[in-house]
Amino acid sequence: MQVDKEINPGMMKYCVVGNIVKEYIDENGVLRHGTKAFPGGRKVYITKVLWKDGVTVMGLNRYKSRYIYEDVPLACIENIRASRTFKPSILKLMENNSEFPNTWWLYGDEDRQGVTAFVELINRVKTGDLAPFCEYHRIFLEQVYEEREKE
After folding, report:
1. Domain for residue 108, yes or no?
2. Is residue 50 within 8 Å of 26, Cβ to Cβ?
3. Alpha-carbon distance 48 to 131, whole Å?
4. Single pTM value for the model
5. Domain count of the fold of the chain
6. Does residue 89 lie in a domain region?
């Protein structure tokens, strides 16, 4: 029996993942365990939506057994890395739609390179370098508006 090792569209996607920090001290000096939506250590999938001090992520909710989208400060995410996902439930949630156009990568070689570049960008923004953020944000918004004009 021969196994087909070719990856077909829809079987896998490249993605950026990270973990929610276990503990941190908020702006009021209170020790927090994770975030309001996610417990510490939870794996989250990071979208292309990058804000000045945070990102939009998808992950399993702290209280309900379902995946949600949430804006999370970059300081609350650690171990940001490039990855691949094969889980059908995650792939279904990662489908681009009219509400979130162009927020996920696909399975091609250019997507793998895009994920790697995005990881480097996020890590630079976390250290306080905002110049690449401004350029990325401008390009991302242009792509979003082009997608909406096509519809």
Report:
1. yes
2. no
3. 17
4. 0.80
5. 1
6. yes
Distance CA(50)–CA(135), nearest Å, equals 12
Domain that holds residue 90: 13-150
How is 14-46 classified by DSSP, letter by letter? Answer: EEEEEEE-S-EE-TTS-EESS-SSS-TT-EEEE
From first to last of its 151 residues, what are the pLDDT tens digits of the chain? 343 455 565 678 888 999 998 888 777 888 878 888 888 889 999 988 877 778 888 888 888 888 888 889 888 898 999 988 888 888 887 876 566 667 777 888 888 888 888 888 888 888 877 777 777 777 777 776 776 676 6
- Would you call 80 helix, strand, or coil by DSSP? strand
Which residues make beta-bridge pairs with 109?
A: none
* Residue 94 contacts residue 45 (beta carbons within 8 Å): yes
* CA–CA gap between residue 43 and residue 13 (Å, rounded): 16
Amino acid at site 127: T
Question: Does the residue 8 lie in any domain?
Answer: no
Q: Which residue has the tokens 């021969």?
A: 2
**For residue 46, is it within any domain?**
yes
